[in-house]
Amino acid sequence: MRHANIALFIPHAGCPHTCSFCNQKTISGHSCQPSPDDVKQTVEKALSYLGYRAKDAELAFFGGSFTAIERGYMISLLEAAHPYIKNGDIGGIRCSTRPDCIDAEVLDVLKRYGATSIELGAQSMSDRVLQMNERGHTAEDVRRAAALIRGSGFELGLQMMTGLYGDDDDGAMYTARELAALSPDTVRIYPTVVLGGTKLAKLYNEGKYQPQPIDGAVGICAALLRFFYEKGIDVIKLGLHAEEGVGRDFIAGAYHPALRELAESRIYLDEAVRQINEKGYKGKITVLCGEKEISKVTGQHRCNIEHLRSISCAATVKPCAGIEKYSLVIEQDF
Ligand code: SF4
Fold first, then answer.
1. Burial level of 37, CB count in 10 A (0-12/13-18/19+)?
2. pTM, whole model, 2 decimals?
């Protein structure tokens, strides 16, 4: 079961690089560094609205590269959180960081203060793509950091991107396979968006970078979601949040507030078309799906139904208990 996150953003703090796509202030929507008092206030507030569910929640330090921030400051934030973990008020601490900012020593520090989960921004497993996007680490850094995190008993999260400068869909699938081989507990997928003030914006304005269109991102994200699902790996996020900052600084790229729904809808459309072609169905058909999946199978503004109509199938979608996620049972009506 997925746990709640009590999120606290550490915008761009400690990051020794500026990746091509990153305008961390915009992505997190926050520009001030939180203080230990902010940690306490955030947890207290969460305790009041989460109630008993807070016991399973993790305080999540997101946004920057947590293990790269000035050590005294990092420890002051952990110290502020630790009493709540010791008392069992919250379940642990989650943080995100860069693969080259993980070593045995910092993992010891995190463990001492009750950290439970670490997410690594891998973004790509191609050294060429990593270099083109000025990530400042290699694919081997991701493998090494992931093994250390796993070996120290933390939950491992990995983040990847699609549509990066110099990458393509085959590259994204390669990254997914390489990440799956590291046995993460969770994955986040971020299609690239071009934000003002980034190197990508410059490349885009000079005509040297063409971002993935929404439809292209939906296609590759559908393939990635299905791939990770079949591997038993939970994709806990797809696409950036609908933060105001992203809207303000957005220049181009695959940003859509309902990207995950569009991608899941595409999985169902592809599956329906595959079965229809395989079985040679025409005319009226009934499409049976999981009970909560009807809107995704139907598609936004009934786009999947319309597509099936364009290949001569008039589909009625019905829920059916016991049908697995991303699966469909299609019957020809007579
Ligand atoms: S490592 Fe993370 S925080 Fe640092 S520049 Fe890259 S994306 Fe931004």
1. exposed
2. 0.93
